[in-house]
Amino acid sequence: MNVQTRPIIGVVGALFERRNASTISGIGRSYLAAVEAAGGTPLLIHLTDDQAVLDAHYQRCDGLLFCGGGDIAPTHYGQSPHPLLGAIEDLRDRVELRLARRAVADRKPVLGVCRGVQLLNVALGGTLYQDINAELPGTLNHRESSQRNDRAYLAHLLTLERDSWLAETLGATTLMVNTLHHQAVRDVAPGLRVVGHAPDGVIEAVEGKGETFIVGVQCHPEELWQSAEPRWKRLFTGFIAHVASKGSILSK
């Protein structure tokens, strides 16, 4: 795929505070590397309330990737904060919810990773468990990979529905995944279908029911595809291939 035909994938960034220095706007390099290796051109969308700027970014993008990060404010899905709710980014919530809803309405392909799958569920009308272990006693430790300080640590099995896009693309219905989260999809949004679970029943993957490409995974495949579980590269190549097949890059 040459440079002129590489799909542009909008990757929504986050804000990172630095001591005695200006705030950094960006995202983990592993997400960008995964998009590049799959044949896409990542375009970092920085957080701003300037709608003209966001619109300019959005118009350039053929697809959107929503990445991992902090918790989503429960006010966006009609709940009060749980005592174990983690850090939230109000600006990131606003930007990502707005972009996700617009992309789905426009049938622009979207992929969500970790926080990203939760974001897509909330954007489309679903809810979340604010803390898995507190609200679902007896479940696995879904922070195990981060607590081991190894983001690629394969902590538990993921089971996928046989007729899902993910199972077909990955060539498997079961595979091991890393886990670095404490929130998860609770009530599934209309328009989404659950296609993957952890052994304890926690929802780990969703797909859109309609024609719009919507895929979300709770694990972090951007940390796995290069070594720990190479099959996850197919998630990104499949996403990019679908974006390219839509032909939007040819009509700009």
Descriptive account of the structure:
The protein is of the alpha/beta class and 252 residues long. It contains 8 helices and 13 strands. The strands form 3 sheets. A 9-stranded mixed sheet has the order 4-1-5-6-13-12-11-8-9, sandwiched between helices. Helix 3 links the parallel strand 5 (63-66) and strand 6. The chain is globular.
Mind sketching the topology for me?
Layout: E1 8-12, E2 14-18, E3 21-26, H1 29-37, E4 41-45, H2 51-60, E5 63-66, H3 90-105, E6 110-113, H4 115-123, E7 128-129, H5 132-135, H6 144-147, E8 156-160, H7 165-170, E9 174-177, E10 184-185, E11 192-197, E12 203-208, E13 214-217, H8 233-245
Parallel strand pairs: 1-4, 1-5, 5-6, 6-13
Antiparallel strand pairs: 2-3, 7-10, 8-9, 8-11, 11-12, 12-13
Helix pairs in contact: 3-4
The spatial strand order of the largest sheet comes to 4-1-5-6-13-12-11-8-9
- Number of discrete helical segments: 8
Binned, the helix content reads: 25-40%
How much is the radius of gyration in Å?
17 Å
How many strands in all? 13
Strand content: 15-25%
Secondary structure class reads alpha/beta
The helix-strand sequence is EEEHEHEHEHEHHEHEEEEEH
What's the story with the biggest beta sheet? 9 strands, mixed
Question: What's a concise summary of this model?
Answer:
By secondary structure, this protein is an alpha/beta fold.
Short descriptors:
252 residues; alpha/beta; nine-stranded mixed beta sheet; two-stranded antiparallel sheet; 8 helices; 13 strands; globular; disordered C terminus
